[in-house]
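haha ok so turns out i had the wrong file open the whole time. this is the CORRECT one, sorry everyone. sequence first:
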Amino acid sequence: METLTAEERQRARAFMQAGLRPTIDETVKQLDTLSEKANLVLKGKIRYEGKEYIFGDWVTIADNSRLYNYTLSRVQNWIDREIVPRQNVVVSRELKNLKLLKNVPYRP
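then structure:
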């Protein structure tokens, strides 16, 4: 079994570091881009059926229940019974019927 000399190990180490550096840099750039896009989505808005919905003004059922300390089933029940007005509910068929609610507290 042959082993590398110290000089050969040093050259191999330098080669590996140089070879991995572009891959690491590229991965970091991709993560930065994804992070920027995620921040835009979180702070941004979506357009659905010709209307714009600003995130924060519209939230999911889970977010609404967390924000106002209700159970998910209570909020869903209020939607079904129209305690939450229809104009305050958006159902996205493209997103597996995801429901967005106007971000306000609802009371029965």
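The helical segments are 6-43, 61-67, 72-80.
again sry for the mixup
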